[in-house]
């Protein structure tokens, strides 16, 4: 047991009030689709159920992995912006959240995470085997559910997106402890592992509202930039956040040898000596944290990563020019800004 | 490292000649669909490829997980028996084998298997993380491929079958070290984890050849009985087989606390003292093997399990009466018998 098992303590209040604030903001941003999102949640919960009491208990536990519901929200909002929200949107919103949930279940195995949203992760609770299988079940069932749409486009795009997501994650594992990883390759990894599912959700929302192909692609691109920014903010939180604030274990990415953007930036501009200091700090794990942060601050690497995230958010907003004077456009801009507000 | 890491040695020759004999039998049984099966294999290999050199290497390695190709063969033969083999059959044959491969990749994690088909398993080679993710990738991509059919029935049935398969496996994990597991519950587990994919493959073969619903269901039932018998034979091999003969590690099911049919039968008819002896032998792992085999022989529990398997095979054959004088019917009977020939 390392620092990962320590209880969240000091910042619980701060966390609670930050989480409350985020909830209030999201409630406002999701207002135009509040009723639709409730239907998505209902469907999501209905699909994560079972006649078998043991499996029902596990699935109910996993339901709570669902957090901000950003993917279904994007799907529904894109639908609303391009026409109207249909039954297809409700189905695919639930599918997006199921797929995301399945990846979280498997991610927790990969990360050996003990906590997820401040509760025991399912692998800590029921073991890795059950986590692998339940994740697989949710994947398979999500595909089955996606076939309930009026056309196969949703099933097609989501199965493709998931295949890409998994390959992004494989690439990440393959680059563990590769401290020569450069920014373009890093971006390729996060585009796969994180952004693809956002992008696909947004595009499908537009598609099922009958939007023109260029509008669908604009939403795909919006989701892609948003996902990139989201992941970079996650990288920042992983290094700078406190356990209680992020609701999962601390600094786990870098400790596990995943080079994230601030570190990649630092290494790209450090001399041999600086590089050695940073890698020693990384290897020291929790004990090296203060040293690593000092080094990364010295090159303004956190600032660089935050600016990159901001740049993607600006790109995301600009890309929606195709919507013209659509009344929901300001809302997509606010959602983009919300991703940045996760910054510490 | 336990006995699992020992190299297969003594029976390599026996294995090789048994494997050669099995290959010859299968070549004969698959003769009517040999060309179609080659097209399935070609498609399977094409789908398990990647532009990324690292991922391509992993996928090529995993391709060899494909063994007897019984699922695609059933699908193609059912198609041929009910009309003709179409492009849909080729696609779904590849999908069936991809799904099976994905479950093997994940099973090896669950079983902590070091060997698969006498080579290092992918998790032994590349780690559990990569195995989880590659399995997920293959699942997702298989669903994507299944959508290439002329209708969504294949995608629908296979996604449903996979969801059931995973739940069967979860139930098995939940019943690990449950030595009160009874035969009906055991059957429910193997119907899910093993038989469902055979049954679905056979049914889809009939469906895409335009067979009547009752014929489709007869094939489903045939596949189900075949799968049950196959799993029971697997259970027997797990206890009675030698590592070199089965190509994976030995007695791993019982060692890992999975009550299989011979043990369930023994426990159901043993007194307190006999039961205690058996459970002590199980807990002793490899060292308890001889004692366990002696006990299970004393109640003819292996014979009972083998008879059960034979019974399911007879049911499978009888169920195909619906085919009437179909010229392929004898071949389905031979395939059923082939499953029993795995007996030692």
Can you walk through the features of this model?
- Chain A is mainly alpha-helical and 344 residues long.
- Chain A has one domain: Orthogonal Bundle (Farnesyl Diphosphate Synthase).
- The first copy, chain A, is built from 17 helices and two strands.
- Chain A has a two-stranded antiparallel ribbon.
- In chain A, strand 1 (115-116) and strand 2 (119-120) form a beta hairpin.
- Chain A is globular and about 60 Å long.
- Chain A binds chain B through residues 50, 52, 54-55, 58, 103, 106, 109-110, 127-130, 132-137, 139-141, 143-144, 147, 152, 155-156, 159-160, 162-163, 165-167, 169-171, 173-174, and chain B through 50, 52, 54-55, 58, 103, 106, 109-110, 127-130, 132-137, 139-141, 143-144, 147, 152, 155-156, 159-160, 162-163, 165-167, 169-171, 173-174.
Task: Briefly summarize what is shown.
Chain A is mostly helical. Chain A has 17 helices and 2 strands. Chain A has a two-stranded antiparallel ribbon with strand order 1-2.
Pick out its properties:
homodimer, 344 residues, mainly alpha, Farnesyl Diphosphate Synthase, two-stranded antiparallel ribbon, globular
CATH architecture of chain A: Orthogonal Bundle
Estimated structural class of chain A = mainly alpha
How would a crystallographer describe the biggest sheet of chain A?
A: 2 strands, antiparallel
CATH homologous superfamily designation of chain A: Farnesyl Diphosphate Synthase
Biggest interface pair, counts:
A-B, 40 and 40 residues
What is the residue-averaged pLDDT of chain A? 87
Determine Rg of chain A (CA atoms, Å): 20 Å
Estimate percent helicity of chain A.
Answer: over 70%
CATH topology of chain A: Farnesyl Diphosphate Synthase
What's the domain count of chain A?
Answer: 1
Which strand order do you get reading across the main beta sheet of chain A? 1-2
Q: Ends of chain A: how far apart?
A: 27 Å
Could you name the ranges of chain A where pLDDT drops below 50 across 5 or more consecutive residues? 1-11, 244-250
Oligomer: homodimer
Helix count of chain A, per DSSP? 17
What's the shape of chain A?
globular
Order of helices and strands of chain A: HHHHHEEHHHHHHHHHHHH
Question: What percent of residues of chain A are in strands?
Answer: under 5%
Q: Using DSSP, what is the number of strands of chain A?
A: 2
């Amino acid at each position: 047991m390392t620092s990962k098992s320590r209880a969240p303590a000091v910042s619980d209040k701060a966390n609670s009030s930050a989480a409350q604030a985020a909830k209030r903001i999201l409630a406002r941003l999701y207002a135009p689709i509040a009723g639709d999102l409730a239907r998505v949640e209902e469907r999501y919960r209905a699909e994560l159920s079972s006649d078998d009491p043991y499996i029902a208990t596990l699935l109910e536990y996993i339901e709570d992995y669902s957090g901000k519901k950003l993917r279904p929200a994007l799907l529904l909002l894109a639908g609303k912006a391009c026409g109207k929200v249909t039954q297809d949107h409700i189905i695919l919103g639930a599918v997006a959240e199921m797929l995301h949930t399945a990846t979280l279940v498997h991610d927790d195995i990969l990360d050996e995470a003990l906590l997820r949203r401040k509760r025991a992760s399912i692998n800590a609770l029921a073991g890795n085997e059950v986590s692998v299988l339940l994740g697989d079940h949710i994947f398979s069932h999500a595909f089955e559910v996606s076939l309930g749409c009026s056309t196969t486009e949703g099933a097609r795009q989501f199965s493709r997106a998931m295949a890409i997501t998994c390959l992004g994650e494989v690439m990440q594992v393959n680059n563990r402890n590769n401290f020569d990883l450069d920014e373009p390759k890093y971006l390729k990894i996060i585009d796969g592992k994180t952004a693809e599912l956002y992008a696909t959700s947004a595009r499908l929302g537009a598609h099922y509202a009958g939007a023109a192909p260029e509008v669908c692609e604009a939403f795909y691109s919006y989701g892609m930039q948003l996902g990139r920014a989201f992941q970079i903010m996650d990288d920042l939180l992983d290094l700078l956040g406190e356990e209680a604030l992020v609701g999962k274990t601390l600094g786990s990415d870098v400790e596990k040898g995943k080079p994230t953007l601030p570190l990649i930036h630092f290494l790209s501009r450090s001399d041999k000596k600086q590089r050695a200091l940073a890698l020693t700090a990384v290897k020291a794990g929790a004990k090296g944290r203060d040293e690593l942060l000092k080094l990364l601050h010295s090159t303004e690497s956190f600032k660089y990563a935050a600016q990159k995230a901001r740049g993607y958010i600006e790109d995301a907003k600009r890309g929606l020019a195709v919507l013209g004077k659509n009344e929901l456009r300001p809302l997509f801009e606010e959602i983009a800004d919300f991703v940045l507000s996760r910054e510490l």
